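Notebook, bench 3.
Goal today: get a predicted structure for Acyltransferase from Zosterops borbonicus so we can plan the truncation constructs. The sequence was checked against the plasmid map this morning, with no discrepancies at the termini. Length recorded as 358 residues. Pasting the sequence as submitted so the record is complete.
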Amino acid sequence: MKTIIAAYSGVLRGTGSNVLSALQDLFWLLKSKAEKQLQIISVLQWVLTFLVMGIACTLILMYILCTDCWAIAALYLAWLVFDWNTPKKGGRRSQWVRNWAIWRYFRDYFPIRLVKTHNLLTTRNYIFGYHPHGIMGLGAFCNFSTEATGVGQKFPGIRPYLATLAGNFRMPILRDYLMSGGICPVNRDSIDYILSKNGSGNAIVIVVGGAAESLNCTPGKNSVTLKNRKGFVKLALRHGADLVPVYSFGENEVYKQVIFEEGSWGRWVQKKFQKHIGFAPCIFHGRGLFSSNTWGLLPYSKPITTVVGEPITIPKIDNPSQKDVDFYHSMYVDSLIKLFDKYKTRFGLPETEVLEVN
């Protein structure tokens, strides 16, 4: 407001350079505000996509079937049946969608940054273990399902596939939107196809802690659910895919949630949902749409820095024993801890901070 008044006063006085300077300041102020609003809109659309797009599109499709435009819905449903197995076969990514300008505004809202520590060979396939889950895995989405942070430039020849709940790909429209970003179902069929029938240079990003880890994420806490998560190691051994630890500093800072104690009714309900549906409902909040001092669904604009660690070379073993799985799982855990310890002070954590592995 002071800048606007200053510019107006300068115009009235006709003071040459002062007028020009004030107008430049005014232009910068308006541009800055416009960019901030675009950042908020870009993040809001993804939050709504994450929370309600699947259900909303299903209901809209059912409604259209009951109207004079039923043929449109019928054609899409016929296409859906024909295209049902596409998500299990690498999906249908679109570089155009991955390069949308909206993702750059999404990146700058927090901001989100991708840090490369080692080169990746295009002659190998990889499984990235992403930690921690956070509430929505915002860093995982921005870094690996869009080109906003330059994953394609940082790792040329590597095609990232972010793996998420298979149930999302049963939702009309949502499935197509997710596939366009290179997102695939986190199930054995999909992962087997990408690692064995899609050539080399593939990197499947698995948020290893999953729903269980999201229940414990809270600002100021760095913990991962990993001790008993060994399925991804077994998959890596069966395909000879190198394991890459990835840690996102700040992922847990963007939302606050109510943490239910073990044994409480709230935790019991969450675990039942997790067991039968695949996700755990969380009671969380961020900031409001118009003010950071109110509660809402928008995440807090805290920086998220995703560090991609050194790949662990994994041999191809068609039928790995439990001893093999345990050995490479132990190597992976040690590598993740070393990655955390090496970079924690660079991204705002004290030297005494310890990564809690559950």
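The first strand starts at residue 112 and ends at 116. The two ends are 51 Å apart (CA to CA).
Flagging this for group meeting.
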